[in-house]
Design goal:
The chain has 134 residues and is an all-alpha fold. Helix content is 79%, strand content 0%. The protein folds into 2 domains: 1-60, Arc Repressor Mutant, CATH 1.10.1220; 63-134. This is Bacterial mobilisation domain-containing protein.
Amino acid sequence: MEDRQIYMQKYREEYKDRKRRVTITMTPEEHQLFSLESEKLGLSIPETIKHMALRYKTAVPLIPAANQKIADELKFLIRNLGNNINQIAHNMHLNRHLYGPEANAHANRVLQGLQDKLHNLEEEMSSVFLLHGR
C-alpha cells in the first residue's frame, strides 16, 4: 500500500511539471457559443477552447472552406464599402462650396452614421474570425 502512495505522489509531481490547469470565467452567452461549437466538433468545452486557441495561434481556420470563402468575400466587401464612403467624403469636402452649410452638415452626419455602422460591422466580423481562428 505504501508503494502505491509513493508512486502516486511521484506521478502527481511529474504531472504538475508537464501540465498546467487554467480556469476561465465566461458569460452564459459565451458558454453557449462554446457549447454549440463543442457539439459541432464532437469535443468537450475545455477541449474545444484549447483546440480553438491552438488553431488561432497557428492561424489554421476552424470553419469549413465554403464558409471561409464567404467570410473572405464579406471582408472584401466591407473594405470596399469603407473606401466608397471615404471617396464620397473626400468629394463632398472638395465641393462643399457648391452646397449650403445645412446641406454640408447633414451630409457629414449621414457619412458619420455610415462610418459608425461600418465600424460596428467590422468589429462583428472580427469577433467571428477571432472565434473561428482567422
